[in-house]
Specification:
Layout (H helix, E strand, L loop, with lengths): L1 E6 L4 E5 L5 H7 L17 E6 L2 E3 L9 H5 L3 E2 L3 E3 L3 E4 L13 E14 L2 E7 L11 E5 L7 E4 L9 E7 L5 H8 L6 E8 L11 E7 L3 H14 L5 E7 L7 H6 L4 H4 E7 L11 E2 L2 H8 L7 E7 L1 H14 L7 E5 L2
Parallel strand pairs: 1-7, 14-15, 14-18, 15-16, 16-17, 18-19
Antiparallel strand pairs: 1-2, 3-5, 3-7, 4-6, 8-9, 8-13, 9-12, 10-11, 10-13
The protein binds flavin-adenine dinucleotide.
Length: 335
């Protein structure tokens, strides 16, 4: 069964009554519904319900402030229509999905330990894996409420393979379930792709990829695609981690054809002290980006993924400090 949704003064679309949130129904229909994280964290998909009824999946989702709730705002990623509805939201072409998201059953094919708290998971579905380098999918880990967003580290392929790099979050339900409770051959629901921080292959600028912690996966995917397509004369890859044992990108990047001459890899550690034997860069990764890259910074195309403090530091550095046009800055916030 499907519910009809009308956007006041604009398009209409339908949402599957069984499995879709308002946001996913809109994106599947190719509507440019504003959004960012898709999991209740950022508030990017706020809207007003004008007529009809909707269930709220996660009432405490941090994407809505108390003020938003008092004003009756809702999150499209946490709303499931109960019947036909009219909503108010300002859609924009920039949010139109580049590849229409689909919901698939995917089976865990391989699990590889990368560092003490990071694993690479490879899932296989029986349809082609279609996504752009840098996008993410929603996984439904076993025995967990709600979906979790994870970025793909591989490239679109006809064989149906979806690869992720996942960090264990202390006390986190989704990541713990993926680490400890999903065995090889077991299946879960995978929904995607989503996200706007994908490779702009038509830019001929030098590319800068900046990965903070678990932000590695989308940066690896972008590096793979940019080098394979000859999309950049040079790629600068910055890898921010706490300790040396947390670094695993070098081996992954070394295996990509073309990395020898075109890619510069700079690991940056933030939690080493004077006594540690570490000859590389120390401090926060954004500071090293400014120290290391030949100026001016507005000549590069920037991609970054990682925790909110890193994202904010980079936005300030690039947009305010160095006047890099926002069209050259692409990022996902791992809320
Ligand atoms: C765009 C994006 C891309 C990401 N890519 C990666 C990646 O490549 N690798 C990686 O390791 N991490 C990635 N993350 C972070 C990842 O999605 C998880 O937040 C992280 O793994 C912690 O999840 P957890 O379940 O272990 O922790 P928890 O603290 O249990 O949950 C973390 C998040 O899950 C959501 N959540 C919690 N409870 C509910 C609920 N009841 N209903 C619905 N949602 C709920 C919330 O957004 C919450 O902040 C990404 C996040 C985003 C937004």
């Amino acid at each position: 069964m499907e519910h009809k949704i009308v956007i006041e003064g604009g398009d209409g679309f339908t949402v599957s009554a069984e499995e879709d949130t308002l946001l996913r129904g809109a994106l599947r229909a190719g509507i440019g519904f504003p959004h960012e994280c898709s999991v209740g964290g950022c508030g990017g998909c706020r809207f007003d319900l004008v007529t009809g009824e909707m269930d709220t999946l996660w009432a405490e989702a941090p994407g809505l402030s108390e003020r938003d709730r008092k004003r009756g705002k809702r999150l499209a990623c946490q709303s499931r229509p109960r019947g036909d509805c009219t909503i108010r939201v300002r859609c924009a072409d920039e949010y139109r999905p580049a590849v229409a998201p689909r919901r698939l059953q995917a089976r865990l094919q391989a699990k590889r330990q990368l560092t003490p708290d990071m694993i690479e998971l490879t899932f296989c579905a029986d349809q082609p894996a279609l996504f752009l380098p840098g996008q993410y999918a929603l996984l439904y880990p076993p025995a967990t409420t709600g979906a979790r967003a994870y970025s793909m580290s591989n490239l679109s392929n006809a064989g149906g393979l979806w690869q992720f790099v996942i960090r264990r979050v202390e006390g986190g339900r989704g990541s713990t379930a993926l680490f400890d409770h999903l065995g090889i051959g077991e299946a879960l629901v995978l929904d995607g792709p989503y996200g706007h921080a994908f490779l702009r292959a038509d830019s001929r600028r030098e590319i800068v990829c900046i990965a903070g912690g678990s932000g590695l996966a989308p940066m690896v995917s972008i590096a793979r695609a940019a080098l394979a397509q000859g999309a950049t004369p040079r790629l600068h890859f910055f890898d921010g981690a706490r300790k040396e044992a947390d670094l695993c990108a070098k081996d992954i990047l070394d295996a990509i054809p073309g990395t020898g001459t075109q890619l510069t890899y700079t690991p940056v550690l933030s939690a080493v002290d004077g006594g540690d034997e570490w000859a590389g860069a120390r401090g926060f990764v954004h500071a090293e980006v400014e120290r290391r890259l030949p100026l001016p910074l507005d000549q590069y195309e920037f991609y970054f993924a990682g925790p909110p403090p890193m994202i904010e530091a980079l936005q300030t550095l690039l947009m305010i400090g160095h006047h890099v046009p926002y069209q050259q800055i692409h990022f996902d916030r791992f809320v």
